[in-house]
Every structure is written in structure tokens, then in C-alpha cells.
Amino acid sequence: MVWGGHPQTGGEPRAPLRVLVPDERNLVSVQTSQLVVRFPTIDGAVPDQDREWCEVLVDGQRRRIRFHDYDEIFSIPGLYERIFYEHLECTSPRVVAELLARELERADVDPGSLRGIDVGAGNGMVGEELAKLGVSGLVGIDLIEEAAEAAERDRPGLYDDYVVCDLTMLSRSERERICALEPNLLTTVAALGFGDIPVDAFVTAFNLVPDGGWIAFNIKAAFLDEADPSGFAGLITRLIADGALEERARRRYPHRLSVGGDAIEYVALVGVKHADAPR
Known about the structure:
It is a single chain. The chain is an alpha/beta fold. It has 2 domains: about 20-85, no CATH class; about 90-275, Vaccinia Virus protein VP39 (Rossmann fold, 3-Layer(aba) Sandwich), CATH 3.40.50.150. Helices cover about 25% and strands about 25% of the residues. It has 8 helices and 12 strands. It has helices spanning about 70-75, 80-85, 90-105, 125-135, 145-155, 170-180, 200-210, 230-240, and strands at about 20, 25-30, 35-40, 55-60, 60-65, 115-120, 135-140, 160-165, 185-190, 215-220, 245-255, 265-275. The strands form 2 sheets. A 7-stranded mixed β-sheet has the order 8-7-6-9-10-12-11, with helices on both faces. Strands 1-2-3-4-5 form a 5-stranded antiparallel β-sheet. Helix 3 (about 90-105) runs parallel beside helix 4. The relative contact order is 0.16.
């Protein structure tokens, strides 16, 4: 999901069939029976996370796609999984779902009693983890139509509804569709920051969940630094300090690899909401 940017989502890796070979243009090719994806080799400084890119062979034509160009990525079946889960080894959907499952068990809460809104749902990789956990209902939310189309193409029937909307400008009808499920769980994985989901959008989603509902999300560790300009460090600190969010668990872990092969550190957090966030 993206507000002023592009969406980001997550999920389990699928079994890859790939061959890594250097080519003539200082790239590394990942070749399967379906896709050929070429990643740049990194000799110097690794590009910022929101500036990473790859080349994809589509209908005989090479296309350079930035990792945050999710409309393009979701339009090519299997490309999202190929980039982020098979090549860059993303673990976030599993990590966040496992952390949520552990805290639900500790609180003696049946996952079947939860109905979730999955913000930045993409093609449903996080939703798939929640369904495995036993969550009884799901509404996907994303900014771009390509994400909704990819979710229906790749995981048909996973979501009870999928709302394409901008949470910073949520209409009455969109709010009614999201709340029709009576959600008591909010998840957002690999979507906060970079302009993808700004603070205002996260606050709107947070406030859609009633008091007593569960909140599970992750965020790049650097965004929790007090000096970071995104605003998330201040928001999350304030929510916890004011008692609006009761933190139950926090885990720092490698979200995925960069194109240079270095681990990108994220923090997963699970808690219980006790009050709305201030706007």
C-alpha cells in the first residue's frame, strides 16, 4: 500500500528453481522456467532501500523496475515473490505472524475470534499467513488497483473484501466497507515509511480497530530512531507511553537482504489497543 509512493507487502517464500549466472552487463541473472530477473552486482555503495532495482525479461523485452514500483511488479505474475522472497530472502510475514500467534496463545485468545484488516495487503502474502493462523475474516487494503488484481489472481478468495483506497482521505463508503467485518485486528507488514504509508495513514488504520483489538506490524529499525524524520518513532513511543497501545512483544530481526547482500534490520511489534491515536 502506498500513500504518495508505492506499496510494500510480504509472505512466505515459494520453492525456487533458479540458476545464478553473471552476464555481460555486470548483472546477476535469476532464471526460472517462468521469469528471468537480473540484479545489479554491487561494487561500491549499496543504494538506499527505496532505490533498489532489477531488470526483468518480459515478452522478450528487458524492463528496469525499481523495487518500489509495485504497480509494475504486481502486474507480472510471480515477480513479487521472485524478487523479495526467493532472491532477497524476506522473512517478515512469517516473523510477524509467529510473534502474533505467540502472544495470542499467552493471552489465551483464539485466533478464530479475530477479524483482521491487512493494510498494504499487496497480493496477499501476509493475509495467507493470517489465514494459516486461523484468523476468521480478512479485509485487504491497498492504494493501487494492481495489488487487488494480483491478490485475486494469486490467492483467490483469501480476502472477504479488498478495498483500494487512500487511508489519508478515507471516504464514508470505504470506511463502511472496511468496518463491515467488525475488525479487531490490524496488521501492516513491510509497508510503513518511505512515504508508502505515512503516519497519518497508520493512525487512521489504527483507529479503525476498537479498544481491546490486536495490533501487529513491523517497521525498519532506523525509522524508530528519534532523529528519523518519518514521525513513526515519536508516534509509537507516544502511543505506548500514553497507554493507547499496550506493547506485548517486540523483536528485532533481519527483514531481508539488500541487493548488496547485507541484512536489512526491522522491528516487529505486537500489542493491544486501549485508545485511539491522536490525529
